[in-house]
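Q: Convert this sequence to structure tokens.
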Amino acid sequence: MFDKSKGVPLRARGSRGRNARARRVALAVAFGLAAGGCAREEPAPSGEGGDEQIIRVAGSDDVYPLARALARQFENSHAGHRVVFTPPAHTRGGVAAISVGDADIALASRPLTMEEKETEATYLHLAHDPLVFATHRNVKVGRLTRQQLLDIYSGQISNWRELGGHDAPITVLDRSEHTSLKVILRKELFDPSFAVTPSALVLERPEDVITSLVMVENTIGYLSFGNALLEGVAVNFLGIDGARPSPESLRKEHYPYTRPFGFLLGPDPSRAVMRFVQFVYGEEGQRTIEGHGFTPVTMNLIIAVLPEQDLLAQEQRYAPLVEYLSRQFGLQTTVTLRLLPNYGEVIKEFKAGRINAAFLGSLAFALAYAQAGVTPIARPEKDGVSQYRGLIVTRKDSGIRNWADLHGKSFGLVDTATTAGYLYPLLYFREHGAGRPEDHLGSLVFTGSHDLLFLKVYEGELDAGAAKNLMLDEVAKRRPEVKEELRILAVSPPVPNNAFVLGPDVGFPCYKCHQLVPDTGVEAAALPPREPEELYEWMTGLLLSLHESPGGPEVLEALGADRFVRTTARDLDEVFRMIDQAGLDPRDYRP
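A:
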């Protein structure tokens, strides 16, 4: 039995209740950091059992200056604790040190790889580090455009005179390809095939870039803005495309050249480690991060989308929304898009905490609601319609006109977690007395996406198949002949369009800190009294007002929508009826 009155399955309500306090803590941290940080803890003891508490730190040398500044402040206020730094290396070195127990905290200056994410380490976002371009102080050029930067680094512009400066050759400073700053530049400025001028000086360490910019005339290079401010580097920072770097402008604007700084914790962090982490995410630590030119990260929002169409098309469809949300949240929130390879991944990813928001079709929506406790907030509407239907189609020249003609034919489905591409055809054959589809058909083929199914039927690779009507309309925009040549054999009842849902534990960087920290007697009530629903309502408001917001109509156009409308679990009534008729249990069904 499934009870939608409280928004959770009956069997899961107890576990969700047990998680309620943890979710309040998570939300409180996210909202509270910007307004004053995590709860203040009582002064730490001078050591457990009277011994000095050592915290070993390893990893990216780019994060060392900020981490050392935080460590000094922590040691001043926590007698008996000492933070020890191993020789600086790279992010991968820190991950390796955590993996074998040679470090308590690893420092990361780039996104983790998929392999690194699979380790037992817990990743905590620390800050955004803006990448800035700078010159030696003798260069009297203050601003450049993106194109001018490309021309400098490709060698097409080689003299400062060409940019309004003095007559002198430009000395280009570059970094090794494996360094995090170069990785960011490859992503945000240079394309993967961009060739940097052979005359560039390739430097390995960030301190080499700083020294060269300070000591060598006519140089240009890129470096960490926060580290430059922290070290008091005397260089000429360049404005790019009209935006001049400053802590204030970088906080207020959506600055594209940034990289994440983060902590990785081992599976069993000590009390001393967690005291340091609590300090970093507390009021004093956050002030230190911001005061040194970095932007503290207070929330991480990973939005997953399912493969209704090919992954490139999905990315192009949803990327404008991610950019819009990033601007609305500001740099203190990381908003990223994750393209899942198949529908069955969504529940597993929600439960593992690797995603915390998603756009879900109606069956995936119902299953994630029943099994992972997601909260629906809005769904797109086009021409006054925010629903879709499943279609069973064949070619007009196939000779197939009804369900009986499908006997022995090849039939396409999309995925076992789709309403239009699985659940509806399952019921269709059952209602016509055909039993299981495989008992009536010649063969069953899963295409993985709706658009591919329509194309395979059109091209004759499949005799018939089932998929979503809205995706047929999308295919017809590119290839109108596909829709013209298909015959619709059956149409499902309407079900709600893809809904935007939030998971039960939105990814705040301090969330796992509070879950891992040993009991110190500090009550959660000391945190600001915020509820999860406040974030949900704020996100709902952003989406519902999108059509009236600057830049919103362009985002909606990419989504193929006119606006968002509010959605609730009640909109799933028809889907749950279909699930029940198919004899499936939404709490246990594993697509």
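The first strand starts at residue 53 and ends at 59.
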